[in-house]
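> example.struct
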């Protein structure tokens, strides 16, 4: 047994658990979404994952204007304008959850919950029969799982002790000292490659890509199976020359199992609005299926690995 009682007691902050997922690794899977990410991708489709803390979401279309939140909040965060619109002073919100508890219309929702490894393990084991019949398992996503290294490592240990296939979806932007010990307990690394040009990577994600690419190489050298996942964002990283560079990189990774292209979609707008943020990405159309197939074929011509199109 690798997992200890101490591992089961480790706490982390998650914002969702998605059961019966089929796009985040092989087979039927449960995806655990961890909160906190060091990147600020302009096209992020889970903006609620970025902050490492709990945060308040407001779904305006649900609000009935009852004022229960005004009475419940100890910090005067909530108010209503003369026209009935709900005003939120996010600078003074402590994410205590009192307003969301009082909001029976569920217009206010606290994003993020603290859980123990034991709690998550109990939840994911409910679907063990589906994992076994489909070759599935558990995927840690986010956010960035390695932004919570102790929780991620303990959860991976616990899952492997339960004979579960484990996958980690990572940006690779983390110290190698954090990533390396987790590989022993990871069946598959889903490695996100946003952009191979350093300047473009900084522009679109807010961070340099040197550490990311170094970690990708280290993971391959360590013998861990890798699937490269590339978000295809028109005007940002969908040039044919960039995909050629992806193919060249892929051909040098001995443990690569495949490349997966993920077409950008603009469906996260309501998520940004709910947490009082806006996307920094200029308005762009989602890539067509034909365009994604064209790019996939381009990679296939340059490296001998499966290239798939996902969501």
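> example.seq
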């Amino acid at each position: 047994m690798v997992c200890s009682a101490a591992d089961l007691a480790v706490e982390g902050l998650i914002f969702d658990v998605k059961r019966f997922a089929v796009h985040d690794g092989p087979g039927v899977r449960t995806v655990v979404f961890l909160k906190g990410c060091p990147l600020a991708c302009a096209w992020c489709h889970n903006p609620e994952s970025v902050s490492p803390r709990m945060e308040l979401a407001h779904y305006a279309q649900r609000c009935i204007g009852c004022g229960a939140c005004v009475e419940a909040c100890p910090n005067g965060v909530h108010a209503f304008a003369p026209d009935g619109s709900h005003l939120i002073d996010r600078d003074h919100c402590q994410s205590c959850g009192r307003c969301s508890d009082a909001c029976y219309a569920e217009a206010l929702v606290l994003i993020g919950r603290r859980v123990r490894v034991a709690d998550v393990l109990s939840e994911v084991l409910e679907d063990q029969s589906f994992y076994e019949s489909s070759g599935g398992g558990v995927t840690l996503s986010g956010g960035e799982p390695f932004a919570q290294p102790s929780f991620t490592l303990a959860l991976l240990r616990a899952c492997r002790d339960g004979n579960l296939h484990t996958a980690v979806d990572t940006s690779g932007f983390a110290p190698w000292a954090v990533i390396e010990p987790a590989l022993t307990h990871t069946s598959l690394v889903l490695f996100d490659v946003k952009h191979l040009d350093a300047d473009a990577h900084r522009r679109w994600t807010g961070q340099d890509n040197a550490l990311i690419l170094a970690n990708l190489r280290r993971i391959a050298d360590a013998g861990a199976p890798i699937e490269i996942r590339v978000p295809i964002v028109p005007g940002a990283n969908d040039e044919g020359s960039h995909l050629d560079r992806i193919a060249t990189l892929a051909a040098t990774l001995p443990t690569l199992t495949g490349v997966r292209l993920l077409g950008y979609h603009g469906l996260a707008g309501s998520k940004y609005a709910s947490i009082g943020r806006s996307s920094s990405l200029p308005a762009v159309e989602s890539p067509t299926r034909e365009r994604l197939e064209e790019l996939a074929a381009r990679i296939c011509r340059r490296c001998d690995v499966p290239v798939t199109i996902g969501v």
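> remarks
The radius of gyration is 21 Å.
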